Q: What sequence folds into this?
């Protein structure tokens, strides 16, 4: 008789027992479930602002992207590609089709069409808001495959987890941040992964895929210049370290030629791949590879080495001479344009401050402080060098690539705050290698058996190598305890990282910028929705062909939400036009009205933070207006607005400052306002001083609208007096 | 190294190259012929551009790049099909040729869009 089973005879339990998986299948199940959880995590951690405020587009640039996507879905691709926008940069207009990167808009429109095809009737704004988190989730998947390619699946999983919550990436890809970077980082990592895969396999199909990835990147972001310079640099490093191989030749050539051709289809990029100095490195390496291949082929065919040496010498000198002459001729004749200011300021960080004030004025272009690095990377900052050490220990084509990517991107991240975003995938991958390798070594130690037990069983068989790896050194008795302690430490660090990332996302990177929040006197939350209030006032109370003059920061939002023509906007393509507006803002009212009449301005919009204590208002940005205006019109001199080099708005301020248009528009009727208990009327809470000129009279403008917290103030330009 | 000896060297170089090349298999020679033809076509286009000017620059670029592109792809095919390359010995030549055809297809579709 068989023994009675311990458990009662349940068919369900038998079913579960029959699912007993082999180790390989268990591992696959664990991997897939981790990836699914990471995918969902990357998405939901970016939803803080949607839950706290509402599903809206943040910041300034995304409003332009939203407006163009709206146009694309309403009018179709042909009209979008050939769109001339007469509602911005009055009276110049803007050729939108030829001056934007269409990748983001086309992607969002495609997702919108697919959803509508499946009968999900979503609004395009919802799709736009959630595009960035969706692509962040896809980036985690690409990071997993990339990690698998460079190191192994463990590193891939850790890389996916790290990049899912890394604040450096979250900062530009929260829900609502509908900007190029949200899609571009996915395209960047995808292109790099495909290229490394192509170099590893030497297959034309993977190179073709990487060319398409590069095309997507070019269509998405101007930062594609990083790819087209990093990959030739990588090929050069491989050539120098003696790792030239046929696979490299196949991968780079196919990717370069096809990628260049595809990239030239984007009108904004145009012929830059053959005419711009920034892209010449790629072409140079292309020709260098041809020379390498040719020499390799000749060496293979000739049996006599001495003859080959002679041939080598002749060819190399000829090639270098021809290349140098061609490059020199190109640069001298001006055919090959030098590096543009935007990218030249990355190589020489002091260049922009002296020569191009508009680039220097953008807050994201400032050099990075250590606190930003710590804030955005946390423990990855010291895991990165550890990962570099592991990469150098096991050098291969793929690890050389990730090392180069990491080092170059970290240099650029140090030059400009905004570029921490580009460094984030590299830092996550390299740190993942460190974490994975360390945890693997520690767990191998934990799972090993004692030496005494092993020597009895093995008889010098093939398992000796495996057993020696797993052997504990008898002279260090507490190795296992040490390993357990170190593992606990590692997991503690990682959990601290997760806590930090979530806190940073919640506190620092989830504010929509267009809606401000503060704590009231009793701790309750106060919402300032002034921007949207002002834009909707514009939309509903001004004639449809009214022109609005404001500083370029608000241009995109005014056209998108206010639906009115603006003079300058965030595209900043015409410095003289912006300088004209800056000159108008910094002149006396009589001079300014001449400029405004010449531009057909109907309304002027200023942002003022004196009542609420909002510090990103136009008075704080005013010196940049002076600098930019003064850069084109020497009549505006910065020292006129300063007192002893100090920027003041109170009684001791410079007379030009107290009477310029910006001052008058911001502080009109503010002299009677009581802002804080115990302070005199006209106390500016953002600057912390009582203003100097309280009795302001406007001659040519009249106040049209001031929002409920005085943040946005709109003035109407009065028509000229009747002549008599 | 006097003049005469370097000339001699050039001569021996040329002859040894010629004899080594004669030993390559026929399929590789066909691919080499195709590469030579496309480079020659590219050169003709550049000479023509030098004479007539480069006005529709996109047309000129697409013409030259189609020749250079197909030459480069043919060289990649040659690398992958060449039996002496150890790295590609697992790759069946049919797969290599299929990749070549696919890349050429993409190349020429993009060229046709770019031709203007």
A:
């Amino acid at each position: 008789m068989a023994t009675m089973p311990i458990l009662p005879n349940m068919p369900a339990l038998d079913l579960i027992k029959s699912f007993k998986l082999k180790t390989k299948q268990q591992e696959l199940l664990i991997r897939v479930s981790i990836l699914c959880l990471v995918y969902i995590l990357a998405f939901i951690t970016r939803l803080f602002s949607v839950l706290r405020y509402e599903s809206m587009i943040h910041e300034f640039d995304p409003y332009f992207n939203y407006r163009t996507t709206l146009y694309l879905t309403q009018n179709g691709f042909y009209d979008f590609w050939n769109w001339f926008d007469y509602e911005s940069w009055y009276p110049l207009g803007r050729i939108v089709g030829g001056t934007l990167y269409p990748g983001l808009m086309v992607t969002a429109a495609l997702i919108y069409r697919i959803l509508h095809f499946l009968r999900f009737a979503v609004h395009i704004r919802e799709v736009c808001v959630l595009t960035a988190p969706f692509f962040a989730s896809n980036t985690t998947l690409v990071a997993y495959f990339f990690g698998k390619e460079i190191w192994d699946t463990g590193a891939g999983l850790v890389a996916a987890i790290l990049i899912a919550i890394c604040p450096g990436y979250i900062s530009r890809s929260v829900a609502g941040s509908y900007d190029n970077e949200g899609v571009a980082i996915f395209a960047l990592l995808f292109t790099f992964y495909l290229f490394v895969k192509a170099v590893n396999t030497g297959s034309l199909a993977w190179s073709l895929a990487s060319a398409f990835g590069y095309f997507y990147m070019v269509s998405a972001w101007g930062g594609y210049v990083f790819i087209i310079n990093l990959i030739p640099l990588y090929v050069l490093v491989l050539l120098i370290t003696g790792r030239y191989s046929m696979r490299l030749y196949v991968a780079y050539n196919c990717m370069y030629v096809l990628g260049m051709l595809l990239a030239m289809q984007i009108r904004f990029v145009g012929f830059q791949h053959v005419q711009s100095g920034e892209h010449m490195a790629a072409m140079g390496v292309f020709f260098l590879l041809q020379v390498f291949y040719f020499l390799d082929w000749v060496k293979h065919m000739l049996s006599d080495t001495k003859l080959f040496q002679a041939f080598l010498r002749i060819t190399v000198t000829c090639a270098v001479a021809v290349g140098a002459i061609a490059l020199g001729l190109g640069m001298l004749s001006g055919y090959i344009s030098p590096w543009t200011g935007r990218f030249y300021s990355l190589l020489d960080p002091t260049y922009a401050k002296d020569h191009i004030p508009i680039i220097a004025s953008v807050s994201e272009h400032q050099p990075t402080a250590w606190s930003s690095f710590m804030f955005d990377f946390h423990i990855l900052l010291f895991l990165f060098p550890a990962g570099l050490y592991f990469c150098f220990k096991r050098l291969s084509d793929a690890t050389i690539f990730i090392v180069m990517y990491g080092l170059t991107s970290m240099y650029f991240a140090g030059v400009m705050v905004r570029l921490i975003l580009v460094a984030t995938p590299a830092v996550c991958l390299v740190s993942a290698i460190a974490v994975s390798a360390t945890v693997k070594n520690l767990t191998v130690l934990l799972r090993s058996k004692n030496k005494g037990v092993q020597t009895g069983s093995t008889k010098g068989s093939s398992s000796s190598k495996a057993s020696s790896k797993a052997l504990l050194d008898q002279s260090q008795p507490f190795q296992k305890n040490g390993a357990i302690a170190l593992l606990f430490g590692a997991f503690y660090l990682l959990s601290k990282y997760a806590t930090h990332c979530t806190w940073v996302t919640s506190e620092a990177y989830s504010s929509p910028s267009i809606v401000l929040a503060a704590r009231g006197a009793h701790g309750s939350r106060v919402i300032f929705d002034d921007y949207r209030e002002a834009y909707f006032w514009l939309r509903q109370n001004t004639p449809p062909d009214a022109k609005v003059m404001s500083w370029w920061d608000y241009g995109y939002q005014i056209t998108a939400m206010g639906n009115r023509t603006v003079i300058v906007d965030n595209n900043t393509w015409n410095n003289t036009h912006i300088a004209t507006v800056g000159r108008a803002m910094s002149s006396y009212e009589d001079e300014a009205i001449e400029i405004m009449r010449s531009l057909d301005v109907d309304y002027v919009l200023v942002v003022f933070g004196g009542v609420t204590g909002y510090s990103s208002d136009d008075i704080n940005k005013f010196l940049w207006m002076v600098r930019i205006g003064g850069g084109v019109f020497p009549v505006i001199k910065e020292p006129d607005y300063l007192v002893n080099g100090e920027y003041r708005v109170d009684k001791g301020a410079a007379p030009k400052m107290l009477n310029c248009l910006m001052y008058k528009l911001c502080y009109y009727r503010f002299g009677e306002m009581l802002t804080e208990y115990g302070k005199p009327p006209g106390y500016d809470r953002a600057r912390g001083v009582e203003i100097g000129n309280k009795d302001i009279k406007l001659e040519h403008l009249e106040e049209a609208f001031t929002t409920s917290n005085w943040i946005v103030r709109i003035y109407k330009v009065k028509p000229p007096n009747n002549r008599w | 190294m006097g003049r005469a000896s370097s000339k001699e060297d050039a001569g021996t170089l040329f002859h040894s190259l010629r004899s080594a090349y004669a030993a390559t298999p026929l399929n590789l020679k066909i691919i080499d012929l195709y590469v030579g033809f496309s480079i020659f076509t590219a050169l003709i286009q550049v000479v023509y551009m030098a004479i007539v000017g480069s006005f529709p620059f996109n047309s000129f670029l697409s013409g030259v790049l189609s020749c250079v592109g197909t030459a480069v792809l043919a060289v990649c095919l040659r690398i992958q099909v060449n039996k002496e390359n150890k790295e590609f010995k697992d790759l069946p030549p049919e797969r290599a040729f299929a990749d070549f055809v696919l890349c050429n297809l993409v190349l020429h579709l993009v060229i046709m869009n770019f031709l203007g």
Observations:
- Residues 72 and 95 of chain B are 17 Å apart (CA to CA).
- The interface with chain A takes residues 6, 9, 12-13, 16-17, 20-21, 57-58, 61-62, 65, 68-69, 72-73, 75-77, 79-80, 84-85, 87-88, 91, 96, 99-100, 102-103, 106-107, 110-111, 113-114 of chain B (CB under 8 Å).
- Chain B has a mean pLDDT of 88.
- Helices of chain B lie at 3-22, 26-52, 57-81, 93-114.
